[in-house]
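As a next step, we paired sequence with structure tokens, yielding the entry below.
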Amino acid sequence: MIKALLTDIDNTILDFNKCELEALKPVLIKYGIPTTEENIKLYSSINLAHWKMLEKKEISREECITLRWTSFFSHFNINVNPKDINELYFNNLKNGGYLIKDAAIFLKEINTLGLPIYAVTNGATIVQKSRLEKSGILKYLKKVYISEEISLTKPDKAFFDYVLKDINLKNDEVIMLGDSLTSDIAGALNAKIVGQKAHTIASLAGVEVPEHTKILIGEVESVDISEEFAHEKLSPVLAMYRANDFDDALAKASQLINDGGLGHTSSLYIDTINGQDKIEKFYSTMKTCRVLINTPSSQGGIGDLYNFKLNPSLTLGCGSWGGNSVSENVGIKHLLNIKTVAERRENMLWFRTPEKVYIKRGCLPVALEELKNVMNKKKVFIVTDSFLFQNGYTKPITDKLDELGIEHTTFSNVAPDPNLACAIEGTRAMNEFKPDAIIAVGGGSAMDAGKIMWVMYEHPEVDFLDMAMRFMDIRKRVYTFPKMGEKAYFIAVPTSAGTGSEVTPFAVITDEKTGTKYPLADYELLPKMAIVDANMMMNAPKGLTSASGIDAVTHCLEAYASMMATEYTDGLAIEALKNIFKYLPRAYENGANDPEAREKMANAATMAGMAFANAFLGVCHSMAHKLGAYHHIAHGIANALMIDLVLRFNAAEVPEKMGTFPQYDHPHTLRRYAEVAEALGFGGANDQESLDNLIREIDILKEKIGIKKTIRDYGVDEQYFLEKLDEMSEQAFDDQCTGANPRLPLISEIKDMYLKAYYGGEQ
């Protein structure tokens, strides 16, 4: 059982590269050395080489610190006192409390789980303590171990032995987090085996297996503790035993538990209808606190994922059978050996929408009458962007409010991809005006900004880092969103047919200082009322019509394929797609001259929004988010460029990794896509042909509405794209949308899709 986290500091939680740069520049300037990229790289390489020598015990710590300076300055024929240089450098270095992106969020989440965090570093005491204090993360660290203080250096095993002895834990009870295989990982664990891929381990044994092999299984006979395969191996290597009958299997399993897993978890796959006697015999025999029936034990043992009888716990231990008192979240009752038997169950699902959704062309002024006649609202705050404001899109609203005698003001400084500064400015205006209703008018940006302002207005105490915490299931969050709507009623009025934001619980805000995007998701962010009036969309330009329309297509396809899809979301997604394929080309070509097409697209976009508000999205949107962030491609266009590749990727019947959700018990996405094709009249002789037909029709639709074929066609510089490719791929993997994708992608697979989308690969 893992009881603590050990973490390196530099380039793991603190950005040493940035710190080094800021500390080095004054040193170079003092001695007349140009602060060029070449000179900075020269110092970094010399410094790194000396630290590697220290790790190998080839030089002492003092030699490492002094020799790096004499070596560096010798390139410029400058004689210096290395101690003086180092003092100046350290004084600068002490101020560099720069955090690695999302490091604070990560540490906070680990703390929330109750896992103590210990920092282990080879840095200088005076520097590391100062940087940690300035970074604001000392509060998350239980203790800091610095090599200078304990006279031991990573990766020396004695360093880790010292730490483990001090915290009174064993090697297999801690996780080591670091950026260096030599200094951090190899020093803490047997990196040749632990945590390695199955292919790597097989190669060490002289066995050839496919590169993407997930698990190695070796057949053995002995269950005695002397058999190496009878132990936990902290790697994708499992032992397989043959049994003569159920009793023999039970005896073998019981012995394995007794020798290495007392009190933890046991798992049985069986016919629950006709095998109740065997289930009872199994759980009576096995000395484990958690007994899982027909449930993945590696993930299901955590609880509340594949069943709802087990309380979620990441402090799962061994109970008194195994020599301690922990079998779930720690409490007095765990002095007793209590067994919990849990069969696989699909938990409660949901369907959430705004309280009121008004549709039909011309419905806006009628719906607004409720503000006066039903809700008795006095003051309305309108949120929009400057274009919509200047072009009169808010006038029908303000005219109606004037008619109703409701005081109003308009905030029109929302920019695309709204930032925190904009939200703060808008909130300040809200606090001065004190509205009892808010109307967000526009596309996704205006509605996102409006939702964030709404939160900040009603709950100024909220912490964005808390609200931005990741989740697997929106109902099971560590952080509970504050109750919304107590100060102001929120109304969303879309002016484009695509985002669906008027009926979704999502908002994205950017920290303009760091560039960090905070995706917020909670049903408290659902607008209270959505007014879908096609009159507000009549004059949308072709580019917006195209981008928003194809965005709605991807909303439907990803919601339908999502692991969280239900019959409720399926119907909305299919009906929306029918409308889009029929009416989007007309809306694109005819604009205001085809009010029917505009209205049908407005309804389709909102239906698609309802679908993905409850089923969520997938990796297509994850990748599109990063294309937009890095290369400024319109969101809908970015989705269009990726969707064909994602459909083929998800349709694999034997994926490398399958998504994790109780109702998604086997890969069946190909059949799901075939159902879409059949519903739209594109069905083929088999599922694969239906998928091919669906992709062909999507491509035809994209061509009709002027969407180009590749990322390169949109003027994205090749060199810059390739430079940012790894970074984009990693961030797309970490995107909140990825979790609901029916196939969990590898980062390498995301990268491959990006490359195909850029150059035009096999579709």
